[in-house]
Amino acid sequence: MPTPPLAGGTAGPTHLRPLIDTVLTALHDGATRRNGPLPAGGPHTVTQNLHHTTGPLIPDHGTGAHHALRTLVTALTEGAADPAHPHCAAHLHTPPLALAAAADLAASALNPSMDSWDQAPAASALETALTTALAAEIYPHTPQPDALITTGGTEANQLALLLARERHGPVQTICAANAHHSITRAAWLLGLPQPVVIPAPNGLMDLTALRHALIHHQGPLLVTATAGTTDTGQIDPLTDIADLTTTHNAELHIDAAYGGPLLFSPTHRHALRSLHRAHSVTLDLHKLGWQPASAGILAVPHHHDLHALHHHAPYLNADDDTDAGLPDLLGRSLRTTRRPDALKIAVTLQALGRDGLADLIDRTLTTAHHLADLIDKNPTLELYDRPTISTVLFRPTHTDDTTVATIRRTLLNQGHAVLGRARISNSLWLKATLLNPHTTPDDLQHLLTLVTDTHAHTEATTEGSTPR
Questions:
Q1: Is the model's pTM score more than 0.70?
Q2: Integer Cα distance of 147 and 165 in angstroms
């Protein structure tokens, strides 16, 4: 077998072009075979089909580039949960924009490693420009805000707690019951005290409970608020929380992984009032930013807030190289090798501009409200609440939690719809997290019909199996 060609250099595009054609054909063929938001049959069937299609993954003799690409990409696509399908709406799992995925291809072909300047000359400059611009969106009133690119909200939240620990020692975190699980996990990983978890009635941080916690716990204290919860998409009362943390000399971190991009919408940015008062902010553009994973951000109001992350490795950032003007990149992440995720984000922002991104956001939130309207008008369905961002919770009326869970799993096993689940107010709800700006009213109505038909069938089956 000849030596396989490389993706980089002047010859790289010539070698890539036919391979990309094979990949695109395989993506199309796999999606056609799936013919829905996810494969039917459940885990056992999907696993069995994948193994049958792919054969041995490490054969004695290679099958060749086109055969391997065609086989594996088709199999993966046929067995995928496709967030581009309007009935795939369970999680904060966005359908990436085609232009962002195309930019990601370029990043893979060039393969800059963002741990030293000599591996990523232009990519490091692009990342600096992008993080500076994004930090200024969050902290418009400070002279030198800064941001880091992370693998997502979990890493960004962990970095926020790490920086607080480096400023103050074993900081005590206070969060509400609606906080993302990564807050508790980060405290554990960092050897910090277990977070004080206060109530979140109706899905929002309880201000009276926060005031009590700030009074009765010894500092240093770090309050973590949420702008876009995983279960309901609700946004904590950020201004009131910021006022309380200021009064009680505590620091504030805001996990805006989901809701942060509302900053780009003149219609909806008011929901993030006081975001700039946080000592750190998590943002995640592979949610309401339509980026391929990963595209997380941790922003801070002052560049020097990140100095604690500095790390010295002589082969990557020797002192004399730094003194000679080579940028030191090791303090930009806890990771060493990392991809140039700035490229796809920068391409998207430049291609769409503020108005284009605002249109995507507004369109998506309008779709969520339309779904809520359809549920409200359907007497067989119950709406939990109006959506804050794009998450809609609902369930059939006069049913129990077991039936709700059964409906969800039935739709999954049939390959008809991907809906999430959330336990709120002691009840289990179906969760539709809408992130596809191309979803139509007909798509929404069809989704609800799938739910109501499945509920009716479940009820009829249950009644038929009950002894008289």
A1: yes
A2: 18
